[in-house]
């Protein structure tokens, strides 16, 4: 099947989206087209620790949709499913620097980790204090095509929210970094795909699935998962997402934040159906859902599928989760 | 191609989603499973005019995602792409009745118009004062498979927002109804599909499109559009959406609300690319965008595609647009 997308050219997808973001959110967001940055309109914020993230594009609203008061100061946009360069990340670090230091939240993909690290060293040489937290919450696989260690997926959204809130509340760089690390350590995710997605520059689906097959344990780039299985009722699929998470970490005895996330091509009516099953399963296993999100938060272009993220919280993390946030992707 | 969906059974899709909505939003939303209603948690609100809407499911977040303070008091959920029954609508009218009267916002589909009207008459016989506004904003076709007159599409979101805000502000039923009608009269929309969608109970795509074809002027049920055309760059497709709207109503000289809406299966990165083109086109035609939304607001299950809605506003309508709203689908 050919590629059907609302685009001008595979080479201009990210640039065109950035033009749209700039046009849609004047004042609240600034766009640096040269470095492909989405920056909080009022950055740098004097007296506030900055928080940035970024990575390949195609996972929207992550990360650009989480730039704004109470969350990120900037997002660095790579090409679709491709790490941004160290120069881009360095430009972001310079754009948000208030003198209080900057936390970089990095999803655990080899290219991202390397390029953010290099940018952090360059910025440090310029006198900018930089820390980083690597998110590696995907229980599906240990190593993958793109990763040494676990991949960073839905937990990233929670880490960005909590770190952003702590920074907004005036916490120090060391404190914001520790909170982000604590959140990352408490996050576990698992996803599945019903269909592949098509990277514009590739022009064909990343993988093939038969009409009755799903890919279990998929990452966010169409990379191979844990197993290929037969399509089944969502009641059964929910268990195949939730059980590996609960097998990996004890989520009882603490308030838990749950994200029921769509991969981009799955309608909300199905995501709520999945959430009903997940909610029942967690109740049966003695897990107390304190907060939840149901919708598209970290996607793989138009892939049909979903992922479940659980974060074992405590009252401090919940307070930062509940703190006001005003971004295009998350707002309360 | 077979049907790949995260569901238990084609017959339980709406019921399962309602279980998920109830589990995800305790307190803020009440779910009446018998009548398939999503009701504001604190309804009925003494002293406030009520506003309800509804229709076939499969267009999420419309309408259930727009229930809450500043917008709807209740949404009535039909089966997928099927009008709710008069009994369901009557139950909603009874659930939200505060004695101040209720406005029903109805998309212009024959079944919806008939069933809401019948329910309104039944409620009136019970002493509930009911008005209705029919939204018919789609410029693509005059009559369709499902409609006498124009179809109701994206403009519905704006009518619900403005009527809900006016009701929240304490305006009378007559005033809320007049504002809703004024908004509906000022709304124009046009959509296109890159792919069909599959109604669960049907089990196969509603229509077929070749790999290089789009359906221009599509409604929200996969019903036939204005013409079948070749896929083209989004720069050209944007013009084919915007020009028929501007040919139909003069949008210059007033602040305009624009919705760049995804049909469910189109990623946000493409919607922002489309918005960049729409924004340029409107500027070139002398149309002043005062407010915008970019995202999924009224969908057709997993259909890939988009629609553009323009509403010619004024300072009063803009004030109600800007008023606080707290729903799962729209919040500020």
TrEMBL record, chains A, B:
<dbReference type="GO" id="GO:0004371">
    <property type="term" value="F:glycerone kinase activity"/>
</dbReference>
<keyword id="KW-0319">Glycerol metabolism</keyword>
<dbReference type="InterPro" id="IPR004006">
    <property type="entry name" value="DhaK_dom"/>
</dbReference>
<dbReference type="GO" id="GO:0005829">
    <property type="term" value="C:cytosol"/>
</dbReference>
<keyword id="KW-0808">Transferase</keyword>
<dbReference type="InterPro" id="IPR050861">
    <property type="entry name" value="Dihydroxyacetone_Kinase"/>
</dbReference>
<dbReference type="InterPro" id="IPR012736">
    <property type="entry name" value="DhaK_1"/>
</dbReference>
<protein>
    <recommendedName>
        <fullName>phosphoenolpyruvate--glycerone phosphotransferase</fullName>
        <ecNumber>2.7.1.121</ecNumber>
    </recommendedName>
</protein>
<dbReference type="GO" id="GO:0019563">
    <property type="term" value="P:glycerol catabolic process"/>
</dbReference>
<feature type="domain" description="DhaK">
    <location>
        <begin position="9"/>
        <end position="332"/>
    </location>
</feature>
<comment type="pathway">
    <text>Polyol metabolism; glycerol degradation.</text>
</comment>
<comment type="subunit">
    <text>Homodimer. The dihydroxyacetone kinase complex is composed of a homodimer of DhaM, a homodimer of DhaK and the subunit DhaL.</text>
</comment>
<keyword id="KW-0418">Kinase</keyword>
<dbReference type="Pfam" id="PF02733">
    <property type="entry name" value="Dak1"/>
</dbReference>
<dbReference type="GO" id="GO:0047324">
    <property type="term" value="F:phosphoenolpyruvate-glycerone phosphotransferase activity"/>
</dbReference>
């Amino acid at each position: 099947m050919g590629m059907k997308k609302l685009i001008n050219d595979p080479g201009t997808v990210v640039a065109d989206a950035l033009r749209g973001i700039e046009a849609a959110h004047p004042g609240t967001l600034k766009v640096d087209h040269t470095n492909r940055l989405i920056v909080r309109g009022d950055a740098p914020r004097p007296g506030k620790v900055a928080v940035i993230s970024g990575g390949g594009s195609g996972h929207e609203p992550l990360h650009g949709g989480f730039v704004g008061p109470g969350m990120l100061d900037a997002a660095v946009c790579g090409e679709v499913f491709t790490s941004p360069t160290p120069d881009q990340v360095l430009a972001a670090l310079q754009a948000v620097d208030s003198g209080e230091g900057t936390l970089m939240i990095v999803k655990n993909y080899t290219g991202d980790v390397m390029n953010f690290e290099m940018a952090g060293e360059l910025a440090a040489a310029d006198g900018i204090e930089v820390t980083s937290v690597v998110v590696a919450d995907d229980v599906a696989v240990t190593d993958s095509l793109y990763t040494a260690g676990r991949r960073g997926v839905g937990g990233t959204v929670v880490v960005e929210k909590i770190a952003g809130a702590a920074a907004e509340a005036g916490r120090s760089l060391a404190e914001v970094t520790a909170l982000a690390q604590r959140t990352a350590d408490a996050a576990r995710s698992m996803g599945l795909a019903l269909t592949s997605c098509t990277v514009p520059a590739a022009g064909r689906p990343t993988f093939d699935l038969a009409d009755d097959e799903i890919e279990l344990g998929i990452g966010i780039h169409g990379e191979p998962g844990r197993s290929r299985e037969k399509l089944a009722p969502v009641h059964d699929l929910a268990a195949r997402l939730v059980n590996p998470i609960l097998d990996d970490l004890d989520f009882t005895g603490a308030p838990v934040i749950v994200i029921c996330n769509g991969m981009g091509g799955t309608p909300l009516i199905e995501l709520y159906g999945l959430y009903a099953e997940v909610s029942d399963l967690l109740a049966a296993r003695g897990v107390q859902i304190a907060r939840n999100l149901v919708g598209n938060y970290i996607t793989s272009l138009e892939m049909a599928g979903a992922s479940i993220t659980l974060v074992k919280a405590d009252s401090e993390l919940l307070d930062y989760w509940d703190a006001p946030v005003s971004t295009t992707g998350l707002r309360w």
